[in-house]
Specification:
The protein contains 2 helices and 10 strands. By secondary structure, the protein is an alpha+beta fold. The N and C termini lie far apart (67 Å).
Amino acid sequence: MNDADIRKYANLMRELELTGLEIKEDNRVVRLERSPAVPAPVQEVVAAAPSAPAPSAPAGGEGTAVTSPMVGVFYAAPAENAEPFVKVGDRVKRGQTLCIVEAMKLMNEIMAEMDGEIVEICAQNGQVVDFGCPLFRIKGL
């Protein structure tokens, strides 16, 4: 198999959105793999997030930021049709679940590190968040 064949298969993988392809030719086996692309709906949510109004966003970034400890998808509620864990104005206790960040099919609960009041929710439900991305701002009591 030559470079042109490999490029042809790589383009086919991209076109069909495949993450892996194994080709058996004569006595040789060639396996091509690539990272999966971010699904289009997630990209739309991320693109729309900055234009969406932040709920009761305080001026000047009041409060202590709760940041994401990992790259993943932010979920404000435990299930699709459930009430969010917290809302702006809610008082929280240290150790209380604020949200879930899904990473590699694992649901990671993000807990409050202090007692306080939620003054800002910085991420949108379903948004991809990076390590260190602010998720909430909590004003201590």
